[in-house]
Amino acid sequence: MARYIGPVCRLCRREGMKLFLKGERCYTEKCAIEKRNFVPGQHGKTRKQKIAGYGLQLREKQKVKRTYGVLEDQFRRYFEAAERTRGITGETLLQLLERRLDNVIYRIGLSTSRPQARQLVRHGHFLINGKKVDIPSFSMKQGDVITVLSRSQKNPTIEHAIEEVKGRGIPAWLSFDSSALSGRIVSLPTREQINLPVQEQLIVELYSK
Questions:
Q1: Which of 22-36, 62-76, 86-100, 102-116 has the lowest mean pLDDT?
Q2: For 132, which DSSP code?
Q3: 73 vs 45, which has greater pLDDT?
Q4: Residue 126 forms beta bridges with which residues?
Q5: What gap in Å lies between CA 39 and CA 125, rounded to an integer?
Q6: pTM to 2 decimals?
Q7: Burial label, 165 (beta-carbon count in 10 A; 0-12, 13-18, 19+)
Q8: DSSP 23
């Protein structure tokens, strides 16, 4: 599966907001947005950005793609699935992305970032309803239970993540038992529960042209 392997702080600077791609670093003064909050490139400091119309729509799409770590073809498939689903297309699109296994691992605090969650899933550290799943894009459903493999419960990366993200909170649509290292999908996420500052309607307009 193709994926972006370049410098991720550059992506945050391009979008002018924290995408939380480097885990704990994003919460410190070392974050690129804190130090260099201007677009990357030789003339980034002096470039005047006048964005309107298509440019605004594109930037909203790029923010969402980069936040969840999906590339164009996969993102378009998510959009087409959202279009076929009853409801508001933009909100449904975000719900589908939120229900990705790698995102859920990140949300319940078993990783410090989505890229790290993706790697942990690929390495087969988790069970879904008692069955091993190593596909980051696996779509979670209401009632699904995530558990850490017994041999992985002392994994230093997972242990460090649990300690690092303490106090940041877990979305209301999820629950987590720290003693059993087990999470559960309590309900499907609503738009209000998806803490992502984007205008998803602009993405719908972009793809509807």
A1: 22-36
A2: E
A3: 73
A4: 148
A5: 37
A6: 0.82
A7: buried
A8: G
Question: What is the rounded (10 degree) CA torsion for 109, 115, 116, 120?
Answer: 100
Within 10 Å of residue 82's Cβ, how many Cβ atoms? 23
How far is residue 102's CA from residue 94's CA, in Å, rounded to a whole number? 14
Q: Helix or strand or coil: residue 98?
A: helix
Nearest to 23 by CA among 142, 137, 145, 105: 105
Mean pLDDT (the chain, rounded): 84
At 88, list the tokens: 């508001």
Tell me the average pLDDT across 88-102: 95
Cβ neighbours of residue 38 closer than 8 Å, sequence gap 6 or more: 13, 44, 45, 47
Q: Give pLDDT tens digits for 129-164.
A: 999 999 999 999 999 999 999 999 999 999 988 888
The one-letter amino acid code at 154 reads K
In the numeric block, which tokens belong to residue 7?
A: 């410098």
Q: How far is 90 from 72, CA to CA, in rounded Å?
A: 16
Spatial separation of the C-alpha atoms in residues 192 and 149, rounded to whole Å: 32
Tell me the mean pLDDT in the region 162-171: 83
31-57: pLDDT as tens digits = 666 556 656 655 455 566 666 688 889
C-alpha–C-alpha distance, residues 187 and 67, integer Å: 22
